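Reviewers of the previous submission asked for a worked example of the structure-prediction workflow described in the proposal, so we include one complete record here. The input consisted solely of the amino acid sequence. No template or homolog information was supplied to the procedure at any stage.
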Amino acid sequence: MPYITSIEQLGFNRGLQQGIEQGIEKGMQQGIEKGMQQGIEKGIEQGLQQLRSVVPMLLTAKFGELPEDVLTKVQSIREPEMLSQLSLRVMTSASLHDFMQFFPND
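From that input alone, the workflow returned the following structure tokens.
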């Protein structure tokens, strides 16, 4: 085994400690970034789910009980802009049939 001086040992220990600290810091940063991304994705999905529930509530309030196919179509929409537009269309539609004319075709 080669002989190392106390100064070399001290330098090695400091380097090792710095490496460990940098590794921990980088791991924590990656964990925070991943957690933030997951939080954003979950928030977006929750927001979409709320928008998906608003359109049927508005339709039911205005036109009464809804056919199942209308509910299914609304639940299948993934674009928040489309859901927002549909919620506004409820207000301008004279009937459920009029509303469905604005609905995206399959």
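The chain has a mean pLDDT of 87. We consider this example representative of the routine output the project will generate in years two and three.
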